[in-house]
Amino acid sequence: MSRIGRIGAETTAAWYAFTRRRTAVFFTFFFPVILILIFSALVRTDPTGGGLFAEPAGYYVAGYIAVVVLFTPLSRVGSEVARHRAGNRFEKLATTPLLRSEWLLAQTLVNVVVIGLASLVILVMLVLTTDASVSLSPLVVPYVVFGVALFCGFGALLGRLADSQDGVIAASNGIAIPILFLSDTFIPPELLPGWFVPFMDLSPLTYFARGLRAVTYEPPANAVTAAGEAGLIGADPYLNLLALVVLSAGFFTVGAYALPRTD
Amino acid sequence: MVIHAKNVRRRYGETVALDGVSFSISEGEVFALIGPNGAGKTTLIRALTGTTDADGDISVFGQPPRSVSRDRLGLLPQEFAPADRLSARELIGYYAGLYDESRSPDAVLSDVGLSDSAGTFYENLSGGQKRRACVGTALVNDPDLLILDEPTTGIDPTGRRDLWELIERLADGGTTVLLTTHYMEEAQQLADRVGLLSGGELIAIGSPAELIERYGGDSRLVIETADEPTVRDALIAAGYEPRSAGRHVVVWAAAGDISAIVEALDAANVEYDGLSWRQPSLDDVYVELAEDDVTAADGILPEGRA
After folding, report:
1. Domain count, chain B
2. Which domain holds residue A65?
3. Do residues B176 and B259 both lie within one domain?
4. Residue A194 CB coordination number (10 Å)
5. Is residue A263 part of a domain?
6. CB pairs < 8 Å spanning A and B
7. B204 and B223, same structural domain?
8. Given an 8 Å threshold on Cβ–Cβ distance, is B52 in contact with A261?
9. Is B131 in the same domain as B59?
10. Are B162 and B191 in a shared domain?
11. pTM (2 decimals)?
12. Which residues in chain B touch residue A94, judged by CB atoms under 8 angstroms apart?
């Protein structure tokens, strides 16, 4: 009971801290909406080959969801760590029974709900604004949950390493943008130099994107890229999920350990 | 013994934050740490709560700081800034929720005088109310050891006195209190013993009365005048050794000397705007020891420095 009580108290406080910042709430959900409108409705896809988006709309569902799974926890948890440090809140928490892993778990739970809702908005927007056909599978849920946990841990690490909230934002953008575009999200491996393709396996987001694509996307016969051919473990949704679970456990553990006490 | 610290040392690179600090605090005692900014007060508190690593021997309730049951500690860190979009009640309730057994948030709010502002977001509270809410977060678990790092900074005089009463009530109930403060009046009012930190060293320790007697100097008469040279000359002629500071001339004198000094001034036909006589206080001890950084003499040396 006590552990659940502590996590519950922290989760409630973190939830209020997020939902009572109207700007944060607005842009958290506006971000995926504007993303879909720009890339799906304005740029559009070109299934006949060539162009920026050469694959059918459904191919990019995993990429759109990867955007919120990557950016939101990275910047939110990183900023929250920076705010806690600036206000000496970790010093206070270190003298309470709350463990650092419990604190990070609470932040992760809030992010899972927020990003789960944002992902839902993305799926609805895609269906409404494009001809994307999305296969819905229960496997989408663990992908989002463990993807969020992974980048919450990463965000905690950034919050520890950056010395201010501004530093966290700059660092998270600087790290997230290359990760996003080099993890088999929007740019298929075929468009990258051959020597670079093996390096894609080093990005944790690659397993998220490949696995989720395998779950949500059924490539047509005339697809430019047949999903599932690239990478160490291919596109098997269960193998990619396993990789994601292992990586999220690692990042979460390191992130929790990195949370500061004081100095 | 609630806190026992022996030869505690902490460095940040080349900077020595704590340099062989030794002292102890008994159960139910109120102990005040005073000293200039950068003296090491906050570092010492962090060493005692296990939130920073320090060399030396530290025990809290007979255990290393990080092994102490968190249910027994209540901490108000310096410059503590909690989540600002929680109401005062939610803030107290949040910290209460981190403990298995905790006090009712409304009872804590009542203790810190915030019952009427319970529903107000922290960010909308006044500076003094914010600090009182922060003090409340340290009281939610009814701690055996309450550590308050500058609890009354930013609080108006009325609020400060309300908090003093609260701390006195807690101490009367058996809670051990360690606080830091820049207000000498606060240390004198609340503390059973005071420790003066300067340059990372605990240079004096004792009851306020002991420290004042030892380092506070004599009682003094302060003469406010626009004609400082004439007043000064008149006092020297009468056999006193005055010191001047702007419009003020200070003479160290017992209460019984006041009439003789006034007569000397009248005889010299000098004009002055005011006379005030006061006994030495902890302010004088602070000025004498912290600002001059005088090493404590025998008698009231901290433990381990004799």
Report:
1. 2
2. 2-258
3. no
4. 8
5. no
6. 89
7. no
8. yes
9. yes
10. yes
11. 0.87
12. 49-51
Query: Does residue B145 sit in the same domain as residue B202?
Result: yes
State how many domains chain A has: 1
Q: Do both B104 and B69 map to the same domain?
A: yes
Q: Which residues of A touch B75 (CB under 8 A)?
A: 91-92, 95
Contact yes or no for A200/A243 (Cβ under 8 A): no
Counted residue by residue, chain B has a size of 306
DSSP state, A60?
G
Q: Are residues B140 and B68 in the same domain?
A: yes
Three-state SS letters, chain B? CCEEEEEEEEEECCEEEEEEEEEEECCCCEEEEECCCCCCHHHHHHHHHCCCCCEEEEEECCECHHHCCHHHEEEECCCCCCCCCCEHHHHHHHHHCCCCCCCCHHHHHHHCCCHHHCCCEHHHCCHHHHHHHHHHHCCCCCCCEEEEECCCCCCCHHHHHHHHHHHHHHHHCCCEEEEECCCHHHHHHHCCEEEEEECCEEEEEECHHHHHHHHCCCCEEEEECCCHHHHHHHHHHCCCCCEEECCEEEEECCHHHHHHHHHHHHHCCCCCCEEEEECCCHHHHHHHHHHCCCCCCCCCCCCCCC
Of A89, A95, A263, nearest to B49 by CB-CB distance is: A95
Are B30 and B48 in a shared domain?
Answer: yes
- List the 19-48 stretch of B: residues with Cβ below 8 A of A: 46
Is residue A86 a part of any domain in this protein? yes
- Partners of B100 on chain A (C-beta within 8 Å) are 1-2, 5, 97
First CA to last CA distance, chain B: 20
Query: Do A162 and A73 meet the contact criterion of CB atoms below 8 Å apart?
Result: no
> How far does the CA of residue A240 sit from the closest CA of chain B (Å)?
37
A87:B75 CB<8 A: no
Instruction: Give residue B137's domain range.
Output: 3-214+286-291
Residue B168 falls within a domain, yes or no? yes
- pLDDT per residue of chain A (263 residues) written in tens, 0 to 9: 589 999 999 999 999 988 998 888 888 888 888 888 887 767 766 655 555 677 788 888 999 999 999 999 999 999 999 999 999 999 999 999 999 999 999 999 999 999 999 999 988 888 888 877 788 889 999 999 999 999 999 999 999 998 788 899 899 989 999 999 999 998 888 888 888 888 999 999 999 999 999 999 887 766 555 544 566 777 889 999 999 999 999 999 999 999 987 76
